[in-house]
Design a protein that fits this description.
Number of domains: 1
Order of helices and strands: HHHHHH
Distance between the termini: 14 Å
Helix content: over 70%
Number of helices: 6
Structural class: mainly alpha
Largest sheet: none
Shape: elongated
Amino acid sequence: MDKRTLMLELKGLSRVIDADVRHLITKRRVIAELSDSYEPQNPFFSLLDDVEDTLSEAVQRKIFENLSAEERSAFLADWRKMPPHEQLRYLDDYIGAAT
């Protein structure tokens, strides 16, 4: 477990990543794999954008639903250090390592 994962785990990552978020991460992974194999006309880009937006919103919602105010501020301080594309990649890696 790397330092970033350890720090986020201590601040409540496992309570943010529930079954719904895991499902969205898996869905994003499948659509991304499909979009990689379609060129030059790619029908999956808009679907991938929609899933990524939904996933980001779900993570934000779970942060507010499942963490106390103190946990939330500590978690978000670390979480927001990553740009959005890196957050998505991190979630994908986190779920991949957990399965």
